[in-house]
Design brief:
Elements lengths: L1 E11 L1 E2 L2 E8 L5 E4 L2 E3 L6 H13 L1 E19 L5 E18 L9 E8 L10 H12 L15
């Protein structure tokens, strides 16, 4: 089984009771809302990653204002030619403020839309578990920067 590690940085942007989300497009075409952000490039600082990725996916310039925490997931999934991958995702979550730019949709990337959603409506959205983890980190601000594993199930 092939081991895969992906380190990524994400932004929780909440303004006027609304949360900024990007709609991720899975390989099978399924679409689910996620936090703006994504994978670090080799040698890139996670702080810079979240700024770059948020702009790519939403059009906004953001400024990280607090490190909310780190989330870790692990999954096994099939790879081509009958092999499998042992995937480990390490997700660094920041609170960020929009400082400029204009809302727009990403073209040619892993997301196809960006939008603000009322916080009360987020639980009804088709979303990835990272949205719930990010909201919980933002609301609770755990001292250890970690959502208990049982709460992160399905992330």
């Amino acid at each position: 089984m092939r081991e895969e590690l992906r380190v990524a940085a994400y932004a929780v942007c909440v303004r006027d009771g609304r949360m900024l989300l990007a709609r991720w497009v899975a390989r099978d075409g399924a679409r689910r809302w996620t936090l703006p952000g994504g994978g670090m490039e080799h040698g890139e600082d996670p702080y810079d990653t979240v700024i770059r990725e948020a702009e790519e996916e939403t059009g906004y310039a953001v400024e990280p204002v607090a490190l909310l925490g780190v989330d870790s997931i692990r999954r096994t999934y099939p790879r081509p030619l009958g092999s499998h991958a042992d995937f480990h995702g390490l997700r660094i979550v920041y609170e960020a403020q929009v400082t400029g730019g204009d809302l727009r949709h990403e073209t040619g990337g892993s997301t196809d839309m960006a939008a603000w959603h009322d916080l009360d409506a987020v639980p009804e959205l088709q979303r990835v578990g990272l949205v719930d983890v990010g909201l919980r980190l933002w609301r609770e601000r755990p001292a250890a920067g970690r959502v208990p594993p049982d709460a992160a199930a399905g992330a």
